[in-house]
Every structure is written in structure tokens, then in C-alpha cells.
Design a protein that fits this description.
- Helix 4 packs antiparallel against helix 10, helix 4 crosses helix 11 and helix 8 runs antiparallel to helix 9.
- The two termini are 34 Å apart.
- By secondary structure, the protein is mostly helical.
């Protein structure tokens, strides 16, 4: 939502300033310039991106238009779910967690926390982190290394769409110049015509440069930065999961394993100690 508001502010300020000095917004509308610039940018994106990266880039752009899913409510559900899982594992043995990990949608624990269950990537990471210690395939002190390797791979995958979109954003001013040069070529062909026609064609060419710069720095650049922040939020959420699982696997009590994960959060989303204790008491009653 904030991304949309920001885009509207950028557009409003640019058009407002233009109109304040007597400009007519209609004079900025040249579909041919838009086709050249946006078409070339889209083509370059397709050229440089493998299919999975292209899909992730498109999904990332739409993702920043939605509210951030890694809110305080999301962390509250995560802490409650982890605490319940760890209590069950401590009380009945790790094998008791197998039914929850193998089919989270049918789990009596996960079904209480719909926001967490809807977060497929983090749920997959959580279940994959618990599965090796349930199966006994790995020693508890080796689990942290396994989770760290997976976190680094996820971070690497996240940066791929950001890289290609950054390059596309950087290319927009260049494509604007291409559109402007094409417009000047057309102007040269009509140089012997009426002065009004020449002025119109020069104005159209300059709009190409204007649009290229505006789109690069007013829209694409901020959207890519918003994607980076969203990726950092996802990484912090998954690191929280990894910390809690590794702590529990190494013998910490359920409440302390979740507490260690809470301590690693940034101040903006970290619940205070009293709120944290209350939410865990609520989870234990459930």
C-alpha cells in the first residue's frame, strides 16, 4: 500500500509542478515514446533473465504492493507455534512432531495459526529444519550449519530478481535517449515543414528522455529497494525459525529456545518480555 501511495506522490508532484508553470499534462502523452522505452526495457528483462528469475522478479514487484506479511502478528503466531511444537517434542519425544511436519495443513498445532500456514516458504523451511532431527539423521550440534547453508541459498536466490530489475532500472534513461534520438530523426525529416510541427516533434523527443529518467528514479529504483527490504524481512523471519530450532535441538527448554529467537529480532518487531510471556502462556493453554 505504501508503495502505491509513494508512486502517486511522485506522479502528483511531477505533474503538479509542470502544471504550475502553465504546462498541459496532455502534452506529455506520447504513446510512441512509451512503447519504445517500456518495450525495450521489457525485452532486455526477458533477454537477461532465466525463466525462474523472471517469474521471481514479476512476483517480487507484485509482492511489494501488498502489506508486509512479516508483521508483529506473524511473529506472534510463529512463537506460539514453535513453543507448542517444542513442548510436544519435549513431552512425547521428537517423533511426535512427525505428523505436524509431514502434513502441516492437517496439523492440530499449525491449523491454529492461519497466517503462518499461508506462508508456504517459511513453513517449508520450518518443517525441513525439524525433519532431520525427527528422523535422527543429524546430530543436534550439526543442525545449525545445515540451516545456515539453506539460509544463504535462500538469500542468494532472493538477490537474483533484484539484480536484473536493478539493471533494467539503470537502463531506462538510456532507452529514453534512444526514444529521443528516434524523435530527432523524425524531426530532421520534417525540418522544412511548419515551425509548429517541428516544435511538436522536438517536444515528443524530449518527452522520451523525461520518461526514461522519471521511470528509472521515480518508480523502478524505489520498487527494487522495497523488494530488498521485503527480502530482509523474510530473511529475518527465517533466521528466527532457524535460531529457535537449533537452540531446541541442542537441549534448551522450549521457552528458552523461543526466547533466544526473540532476542535476535530488530526492535521494531520484537515483542517485549511481558507480552512474550503472555503469548506463550496462551499457547500452552491451547
Amino acid at each position: 500500500m505504501l508503495v502505491i501511495v509513494g508512486a502517486l506522490v511522485v506522479t502528483g508532484c511531477v505533474l503538479g509542478g509542470f502544471m504550475m508553470v502553465g504546462g498541459n499534462p496532455v502534452s506529455l502523452w506520447h504513446p510512441n515514446e512509451v512503447i519504445v522505452i517500456c518495450g525495450a526495457a521489457l525485452g532486455s528483462l526477458i533477454l537477461m533473465s532465466p525463466a525462474p528469475v523472471l517469474k521471481a522478479a514479476i512476483g517480487g514487484v507484485f509482492g511489494v504492493l501488498k502489506p508486509n506479511p512479516y508483521s508483529k502478528v506473524a511473529y506472534e503466531e510463529l512463537f506460539k507455534a514453535l513453543y507448542e511444537l517444542f513442548l510436544a517434542g519435549r513431552k512425547n519425544g521428537m517423533i511426535a512432531l512427525e505428523e505436524h511436519v509431514n502434513d502441516p495443513s492437517a496439523s492440530g498445532i499449525f491449523s491454529k495459526y492461519p497466517a503462518l500456514l499461508k506462508n508456504h516458504h517459511s513453513m517449508e523451511f520450518l518443517c525441513a529444519g525439524l525433519r532431520p532431527i525427527i528422523d535422527g539423521k543429524i546430530k543436534p550440534d550439526q543442525l545449525k550449519m545445515l540451516l545456515d547453508v539453506e539460509l544463504k541459498a535462500m538469500e542468494h536466490d532472493h538477490h537474483k530478481p533484484i539484480l536484473v530489475l536493478t539493471k533494467v532500472g539503470d537502463s531506462f534513461p538510456g532507452f529514453g535517449i534512444v526514444a529521443a534520438v528516434l524523435g530527432i530523426i523524425l524531426t530532421m525529416g520534417a525540418i522544412s515543414g511548419p515551425i509548429e510541427e517541428i516544435g511538436h516533434k522536438v517536444g515528443s523527443a524530449l518527452v522520451g528522455t523525461f520518461l526514461g529518467i522519471l521511470v528509472a528514479y521515480g518508480y523502478v529504483g524505489p520498487v527494487v529497494t522495497a523488494m530488498e527490504f521485503l527480502g530482509e524481512s523474510e530473511a529475518e523471519f527465517n533466521k528466527c525459525i532457524a535460531t529457535a530450532i537449533a537452540s531446541f535441538a541442542n537441549g534448551m527448554a522450549p521457552i528458552m529456545a523461543v526466547e533466544v529467537a526473540r532476542r535476535g529480532l530488530s526492535a521494531s518487531i520484537k515483542p517485549d518480555g511481558h507480552t512474550f510471556e503472555d503469548m506463550l502462556k496462551e499457547a500452552s493453554k491451547g
